[in-house]
Specification:
The chain is mainly α. The chain contains 20 helices and two strands. The relative contact order is 0.15. InterPro entries: MFS_dom, MFS_sugar_transport-like, MFS_trans_sf, Myo-inositol_Transporter, Sugar/inositol_transpt, Sugar_transporter_CS, XylE-like.
Length: 472
């Protein structure tokens, strides 16, 4: 009995776009888990510190441990997806994430919490690779950019929902993440609620078809024909599409790391470009805003409740920026969005660095003058907006499109793995860098935003409107 649903062809004249949107949204649920997990920890951090009596160093290791698990999950997801299929990998990721959520809710010590976070990270890494690859393989070229944007839309929605949940639980417990609700501390509920979207993801994985490219590679042509007919509409010619895909696959074999190698540069140029895009996406410091939002704003004199409200507002701005990107990515292209976002981020980060240079004191006793505090808040929101309408969406779209068919899943795994490692480096270093010099830290992030401009201009090629078979 097969575990994937195979839809029947639609009657002539009946559009397929609505069904493709549903398929993309269901696959992007993995992005929701990614966003939820990335942000939920920010509300729990101070509760974890107080409950276990640990400082910034131990906290950074626990927060970042999930990212190392994500790197492992991302690295293995492409290989696994090429062998057992995209849908089965989604289901495995959902189960691991649900287990992690339950375990993280009741850790006996900080070490065990870190272990559960790593397991959840593996699931997130797998989902972060599978969603863009799957959506790119299912979506028709004319709307592929918008559908691939669902990955980032789901991420930012997950961030927003987790911030709302964190705030509601914190206030419901009495204003502190260490206050109990039904005998369980609020921060534990914050982590445990993750299980709910994981179960939804698992159920939705049963409602969508397997990737037609995987079905063709596995010799399941009848199923591939039905899926192609369903997602590309009644006017499409599924037999011609199958022949096109088979033609591309004719000289291919199951991809291995050897297929990514390329001369003196060790890896093929296109793989290095994917890695570069992933690293730049993280080195601008975007996840500092979401992982450490509560600590960041408390470190400049804002109380816990207000810092959580700021987290909610930045998450809302994140959603607005993502909606803008979805509307524009197939109209004006990937490169223009990335270039505009890089310029905006550089200015916003530099402005925040200037404002933070007026910080007086350290820790929760630190303060900012009213003018600089206002500027810092505005700059942070502008930064999030610029990231959301550009790099937040564009990188995930490009990673699903830019690689040749024969190495797509594996190359995407390598690039996503690099992204998680870069994310870990930023996450684990921020508490120490912040204690050293918050203004200088944001100046570093601004420099990376500035450097991303020539990277895009010279190395990123436009993929708007091209078929996946024409890549490479």
């Amino acid at each position: 009995m097969t575990s994937t649903a195979t839809p029947q062809p639609r009657a002539s004249g009946e559009g397929s776009l609505g069904h493709v949107v549903f398929i993309a949204a269901a696959a992007a649920m993995g992005g929701f888990l990614f966003g939820y997990d990335s942000s939920v920890i920010s509300g729990a951090v101070t509760g974890i510190q107080k409950h276990f009596g640990v400082g910034n160093g131990e906290t950074a290791l626990v927060v970042s441990s999930a990212l190392l698990g994500s790197a492992v999950g991302a690295m293995g997801a492409g290989w696994l997806a090429d062998r057992i299929g995209r849908i089965k990998v989604m289901k495995i990721a959902a189960v691991l994430f649900a287990i992690s959520g339950i375990g993280s809710m009741f850790p006996p010590n900080i070490f065990v919490l870190g272990v559960w976070r790593v397991i959840g990270g593996v699931a997130i890494g797998m989902a972060s690779v599978i969603a863009p690859a799957y959506i790119a393989e299912v979506a028709p070229p004319a709307v592929r950019g918008r559908l691939a944007s669902f990955q980032q839309a789901a991420i930012v929605l997950g961030i927003f929902i987790s911030q709302l949940v964190n705030y509601a639980l914190n206030e419901g417990a009495g204003g502190s993440p260490n206050d109990p609700i039904a005998g369980i501390q609020a921060w534990q509920w914050m982590l445990g609620v993750e299980t709910i979207p994981a179960l939804i993801y698992f159920v939705m994985a049963y409602a969508i078809p397997e990737s037609p490219r995987f079905l063709i590679s596995a010799g399941r042509l009848d199923q591939a024909r039905r899926v192609l007919s369903d997602v590309e509409g009644p006017e499409s010619d599924p037999d011609a599409r199958i022949a096109e895909i088979q033609g591309v696959m004719a000289s291919e074999h199951k991809s291995t790391l050897r297929d990514l190698l390329g001369g003196k540069a060790f890896l093929k140029t296109i793989v290095w470009i994917g890695i570069g895009a992933s690293v730049f996406q993280q080195f601008v410091g975007i996840n500092v805003i979401f992982y450490y939002s509560s600590l960041l704003w408390q470190s400049v004199g804002i109380n816990a409740s207000n810092s959580l409200l700021i987290s909610v507002s930045t998450s809302l701005v994140n959603i607005i920026g993502t909606v803008i990107a979805i509307a524009l990515v197939d109209r004006i292209g990937r490169r223009p969005l990335a270039l505009a976002g890089s310029a905006g981020m550089a200015v916003a980060l530099a402005t925040a660095a200037w404002a933070f240079s007026y910080r007086v004191g350290k820790g929760t006793s630190a303060t900012l003058p009213n003018l600089q505090a206002t500027v810092a808040l505005v700059a942070a929101h502008v930064f999030v907006l610029c990231f959301a309408f550009s790099w937040g969406v564009v990188v995930w779209v490009l990673l699903g499109e830019m690689f040749p068919n024969k190495i797509r899943a594996l190359a995407l795994s390598v690039a996503a793995c690099a992204q998680w490692i870069a994310n870990w480096a930023i996450t684990v270093s921020f508490p120490s860098l912040s204690d050293w010099n918050l203004s200088a830290t944001y100046s570093i992030y601004a420099c990376f935003a500035l450097l991303s401009i020539p990277f895009v201009y010279f190395f990123i090629k436009e993929t708007k409107g091209r078929t996946l078979e024409s890549m490479g």
